[in-house]
């Protein structure tokens, strides 16, 4: 028997109830309209009525498949081909180089106006609904978090970073800072500001040089 899929379900996977034949064209129109309106209005001003009007369907059609605005937003983002950067960090042999390149690539999503708007929208949706929050965590945050932690563990095995460091805390500081910048609509997010954060975090991870033993008489050489 094959293993069950670990990918969180979307509206594409949910079968409508008896007597409720679903139009795939309508479903796709709803998701496309949602993405457009997120960019134009943001999550707060987005409404089911507005989505229905843009998609050319009735509000009842939307509520038939999605119980809330947040769930529509989650599906609209989840079903995009490549909504956010999810590639794991490279393994070039330099953890500093690999981590910086990975964070730079991720930061570009956060400074891009369209993607930043979708990040804010799904964050707001997740704050309203625990099920939406779990799906988004499994699909995005967990993937990003696990990939970077694995890279840091590999660096620890190679002696590049301290093996006793809390890698989860380091990754949370990186992802949390990016989320703060985008949700607070900070205009100062840039590669330079990201590098300043990485300078602090990576310096704390470095293996301290071994100190030379003092002479037996206690005098320093």
From TrEMBL:
<dbReference type="InterPro" id="IPR001647">
    <property type="entry name" value="HTH_TetR"/>
</dbReference>
<keyword id="KW-0805">Transcription regulation</keyword>
<feature type="region of interest" description="Disordered">
    <location>
        <begin position="1"/>
        <end position="25"/>
    </location>
</feature>
<keyword id="KW-0238">DNA-binding</keyword>
<dbReference type="InterPro" id="IPR009057">
    <property type="entry name" value="Homeodomain-like_sf"/>
</dbReference>
<dbReference type="InterPro" id="IPR011075">
    <property type="entry name" value="TetR_C"/>
</dbReference>
<keyword id="KW-0804">Transcription</keyword>
<feature type="domain" description="HTH tetR-type">
    <location>
        <begin position="24"/>
        <end position="84"/>
    </location>
</feature>
<dbReference type="InterPro" id="IPR050109">
    <property type="entry name" value="HTH-type_TetR-like_transc_reg"/>
</dbReference>
<protein>
    <submittedName>
        <fullName>TetR/AcrR family transcriptional regulator</fullName>
    </submittedName>
</protein>
<dbReference type="InterPro" id="IPR036271">
    <property type="entry name" value="Tet_transcr_reg_TetR-rel_C_sf"/>
</dbReference>
<feature type="DNA-binding region" description="H-T-H motif">
    <location>
        <begin position="47"/>
        <end position="66"/>
    </location>
</feature>
<dbReference type="Pfam" id="PF00440">
    <property type="entry name" value="TetR_N"/>
</dbReference>
<feature type="compositionally biased region" description="Polar residues">
    <location>
        <begin position="1"/>
        <end position="10"/>
    </location>
</feature>
<dbReference type="Pfam" id="PF16859">
    <property type="entry name" value="TetR_C_11"/>
</dbReference>
